[in-house]
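Hi F.,

I've been meaning to write this up properly since the lab meeting, where we talked about keeping a consistent format for the predictions we share between groups. The idea is simple: the sequence comes first, exactly as it goes in, then the C-alpha cells exactly as they come out, then a line or two of notes. No screenshots and no reformatting. I'm using this chain as the first example so we have something concrete to point to.
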Amino acid sequence: MAENRNDRIHARWLVAPLALMLLAAGFAPAQDSIRDTGRNLAASCASCHGTNGASAAGMPALGGRSKVELQTQMREYKSGGRDGTVMPQLAKGFTDEQIDDVTSWFASQRAAQ
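Output, unedited:
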C-alpha cells in the first residue's frame, strides 16, 4: 500500500510540470494573434506614418516609441483632449483593446533612423 501512495505522489510531480508546459503553450497562439491584430490595425496607419511606423513624409515616426506614450496620445485623440486634423476622427474608431494592440505593435518595431 505504501508503494501505491508513493506512486501517486510521483505521478503528481510528473503531471504538474507537464500541465504547466501545456498551459504555457496555449498562450503562444494567443500572443501571436494579438501581435497579428496589432500589425493588421497598423497597416491602416502606413499611408501617413510609414511602413512599420518609420515615417519619411514629415509625420511622426511611431516605430520603437513607448507603448505608454502612444496609448496616451491615442486616447487623448479619442477623447477630444488632443487636437489634430485626421487623428481625432481615426482614434474614435478604435476600441481600447485595439489601441493597446496597435500601440504594442508599434512599440515592438525598430525606431526610425
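Notes:
Residues 18-25 have pLDDT under 50 and may be disordered.
Residues 2-43 form the longest helix (42 residues).

If this format works for you, I'll send the rest the same way.

G.
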